[in-house]
Design brief:
Length: about 140
C-alpha cells in the first residue's frame, strides 16, 4: 500500500511525503501515521519559521507557543528535558506563569502526536524533540 500527502502553500510551493509498505503490519502502520502527522504538523504549523519568535502574537495558544519554542528557539533544550525545566524556561521567555500540570499535559500530547520522544517513569519522565531526518530514515529502512 502507498500513502502520499501533498501540501501546497500560499505561494504555490508543494511539499509532500510518500510512504510505501505493508500497512497491515501494526508497527509499520504506526510509523506511517506518526510520520504523516509530523509532516502535516510541520507544514501546517501556524507559525512560519521566520516569525517563530513573535511572542506578542496573542492569537497563539499556550500549546502552539510551547511547540514553536521547542522547535525553533535557541534557548530550548537540545537533549532530554523534564516538564519542570520547560516550565521554568517558558515562564522566563514568555513572562507568563504556567502550571506544571499544563506543561505536562501538552508535552504528553506532543509525544502522542509524534513530535516528542519520551522515556522514564512517570515520576522521572523526560522528553526530547524527535529529529525528523533520523525518523524518516529509520522509517524508510523499515518500509522496504
Amino acid at each position: 500500500m502507498k500513502v502520499r500527502v501533498e501540501v501546497t502553500d500560499e505561494e504555490g510551493v508543494k511539499s509532500s511525503i510518500e510512504k510505501e509498505g505493508d500497512l497491515q503490519i501494526e508497527m509499520l502502520r504506526q510509523l506511517t501515521i506518526r510520520d504523516v502527522a509530523k509532516f502535516l504538523e510541520a507544514q501546517l504549523s501556524p507559525l512560519p519559521v521566520r516569525n517563530a519568535y513573535d511572542y506578542e502574537g496573542g492569537d497563539l495558544t499556550i500549546k502552539e507557543r510551547l511547540a514553536s519554542f521547542l522547535r525553533f528557539d535557541e534557548r530550548a533544550p537540545k537533549g532530554w528535558f523534564t516538564s519542570s525545566q520547560i516550565r521554568r524556561i517558558y515562564e522566563a521567555v514568555f513572562e507568563e506563569n504556567l502550571r506544571l500540570t499544563t506543561v505536562s499535559t501538552y508535552l504528553a500530547s506532543m509525544h502522542s502526536g509524534g513530535s516528542l520522544e519520551r522515556k522514564g517513569s512517570r515520576a522521572k519522565r523526560q522528553y526530547r524533540l524527535v529529529s525528523t531526518g533520523s525518523t524518516e530514515a529509520a522509517s524508510a529502512v523499515n518500509m522496504v
